[in-house]
Design a protein that fits this description.
It is a single chain. The chain is of the alpha/beta class. Helix content is about 35%, strand content about 15%. It has a 4-stranded parallel beta sheet with strand order 2-3-1-4. It starts with a strand and ends in an 8-residue tail after the last helix. About 20% of the residues are buried.
Length: about 210
């Protein structure tokens, strides 16, 4: 599996993934004389995922458009950390139209975040069509140890039957530090939650 950081600011994935080797950026990967060979040597995160950093590339840079084709023939799964701003952009068309692509919308367990989720769902529907919800997974992230100011069950009920799955990631003090993530320091409940997300985001052909 490879993970590509395409967020607006970039770098958070690199800084939190516990990567010991030198990070490979999109520019370095694409402009390499033998990019296929470089894919095999991408630095690994603590969880075993190969990581590609955004570097100085913007999401709308032409060089970014070549990444999916390059990775598709060398890794079984590619994850793109897009950020909400990229969902409706023209440059996201190829990813949106990929029949095997699954969209994951992460929402914090807060009332204001729940309210903004509707806008993101509308953005997806307008950009792709309402059928996209069949391959959309919503993840509710509990980033605060206190009880949320809104009942997640209400959102889960609202999304039931609309999206492929709605899952929750419980509060984990290791994630809350904002520092590098070591998979072996995560709580068992957190690991179980991510495993459920992994299974929910499997392509339709690969789902059990």
């Amino acid at each position: 599996m490879a993970v590509v950081d395409l967020t607006v600011t970039g770098g958070d994935l690199r800084s939190r993934a516990s990567i010991e080797d030198l990070v490979t950026t999109i520019d370095t990967l694409i402009e390499s004389v033998e990019p296929e060979a470089l894919v095999s040597d991408l630095p690994l995160s603590a969880a075993g995922a190969r990581v590609v950093d955004r570097g100085d590339s913007r999401f709308d840079d032409p060089v970014v458009h070549r990444v999916p084709d390059l990775l598709r023939s060398h890794v079984d799964t590619a994850v793109y950390d897009l950020g909400a701003d990229a969902l409706g952009s023209r440059e996201c068309v190829r990813l949106r139209e990929d029949a095997d692509a699954v969209f994951v919308l992460v929402v914090q367990a807060r009332a204001d975040a729940f309210n903004r989720l509707r806008a993101y769902l509308d953005l997806l529907a307008n950009a792709v069509g309402e059928w996209v919800f069949e391959r959309t997974v919503v993840v509710i992230s509990h980033q605060n140890s206190a009880e949320p100011d809104v009942d997640p069950a209400e959102l889960v009920g609202y999304l039931s039957g609309l999206v492929r799955a709605t899952l929750e990631v419980p509060y984990d003090p290791h994630l809350a530090t904002g520092l590098e993530i070591a998979s072996w320091e995560l709580r068992a409940a957190t690991v179980d939650a991510y495993d459920r997300i992994r299974r929910a985001t499997a392509s339709a052909e690969g789902r059990q």
